[in-house]
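Reading a protein record of the kind used here takes only a little practice. An example makes this concrete, so a full record is given next.
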Amino acid sequence: MTFLLTRELGRLAKWLRIFGFDALYSHEDNFGAIVIQALRESRIIITRNHRLARSCRTKTVLLKSETLKNQVVELLKELQLDLKSDKMFRRCILCNVELVAIEKERVRGQVPDYVFQTQDSFITCPACKRIYWSGTHWGNVMQTLEEIGLS
């Protein structure tokens, strides 16, 4: 499943990417442009905008929750999505592109010295060149999932 989230759901888009889902985030105010993009790319629109959800003729999920954690729970339940730990951290949280492995030597000088010395595996975004590694963020994500009741 691929998603297109409307402008009020930027944090949720980031979390869907952390979970491994292809989740585009639209800054558009033009509902027509959002619908056209969703149809063209076979994406499910996720929104909190009642007017868009009512007028949309494509698969749309209208979230009622205001908080991120409740939005995650609501969306997972609505679409019956299953979170798999082996799919997590496979997309860039900034630009949604799939991450690729990069040799440790190639990140020297691009990550903090401590990280370079203590980590062996790195992945990078081919689009924005951001470098990722397994750090405290993994534990933070797992803690958030526990708080939501999904772990």
Notes: The chain is about 40% helix and 15% strand. The longest strand covers residues 2-5. The beta strands are 2-5, 22-25, 44-47, 60-62, 100-102, 122-124, 131-132.
